[in-house]
Amino acid sequence: MASPNGGDDFESSLLSFEKLDRASPDLWPEQLPGVAEFAASCKNPINNSPPKWMAELESEDIEMLKELGSLTTANLMEKVKGLQNLAYQLGLEESREMTRGKFLNILERPKKKPSTCAHPAFHLMSRFTQNIA
Known about the structure:
This protein is an all-alpha fold. Helix content is 59%, strand content 0%. This is Protein lin-52 homolog. It comes from Cyclopterus lumpus.
């Protein structure tokens, strides 16, 4: 068995202070092509303009995002449950209004007069023969 002092020497002998450089593509090939360039572009952005998805947001939207981002997981879950309940209540209300509209016949389409022949050429020929006679 090794002595307690000998164990520290053994662990320190296993340490390596060599600095590994990732500059050589032969030693460290890139596993996903293009990732290094993408990471470099994220660190040094060429332009300081916001991303496309953020350009369409208004100040109220950004404040809402900040508020939601500051919530804890439990608070965020409560917020999601509240939104689900609100969506459910809205669905129930919409269902009642659609049923009401059905009973009041406000959603019924107007009926067209039935024609004797559905082909448009028949109507043109009937007009032509009326003009001749």
